[in-house]
Design goal:
Number of domains: 2
InterPro entries: Glyas_Bleomycin-R_OHBP_Dase, PhnB-like
CATH architecture of the largest domain: 2-Layer Sandwich
Number of strands: 8
Largest sheet: 4 strands, mixed
Pfam families: 3-dmu-9_3-mt
CATH topology of the largest domain: Signal recognition particle alu RNA binding heterodimer, srp9/1
Domain PhnB-like: 3-135
Helix content: 10-25%
Number of helices: 2
Distance between the termini: 24 Å
Radius of gyration: 17 Å
Mean pLDDT: 91
Low-confidence stretches: none
Strand order of the largest sheet: 1-4-3-2
Protein name: PhnB-like domain-containing protein
CATH class of the largest domain: Alpha Beta
Structural class: alpha/beta
Strand content: 25-35%
Length: 142
């Protein structure tokens, strides 16, 4: 069994994918648009009418060994990501700093990257889309 995050960007999915490709090296696996749906009247079961045809109905991107999926959702405006964070484990402090700074570009630092009792580098940042990230150098585990 596998748990994979599914993020609703409310109309900014394509922009988010491009950002994550630049910022953290995400690899786009697939992107399907509403206009490509062979049954456009069916929508996706959770909305009255599907968004504009060029909006993203579903996408999948790989970040490291994890697949993160998403869509434009209902295209209702600003995404509201609350109650969770995505965690990036990095091999060293330089990698942590690079990813933290890239994710923070246009976003908001929630906790500056620094030494903690559990990691030589840990920080929290909300990116420009409002997704919270925890970036850390994972301690060695036996």
């Amino acid at each position: 069994m596998q748990v994979q995050p599914y993020l609703f960007f409310e109309g900014r999915c394509e922009e988010a994918v491009a950002f994550y490709q630049r910022a953290i090296g995400a690899e786009l696996i697939t992107m399907m648009r509403y206009q490509d749906n062979p049954e456009p009247q069916a929508g996706n079961g959770c909305m009255q009418a599907p968004p504009a045809g060029d909006k993203v109905m579903h996408m999948a991107m790989r970040i490291g060994a994890t697949t993160v999926m998403g869509s434009d959702g209902r295209c209702e405006g600003k995404p509201a990501f609350q109650g969770f964070a995505l965690s990036l484990n990095t091999p060293d402090e330089a990698a942590a700093r690079k990813l933290f700074d890239a994710l923070g570009d246009g976003g908001q630092v929630l906790m500056p990257l620094g030494r903690t009792f559990f990691s030589p580098a840990f920080g929290m940042v909300a990116d420009r889309f409002g997704v919270s990230w925890m970036v850390l150098v994972a301690p060695d585990t036996p």
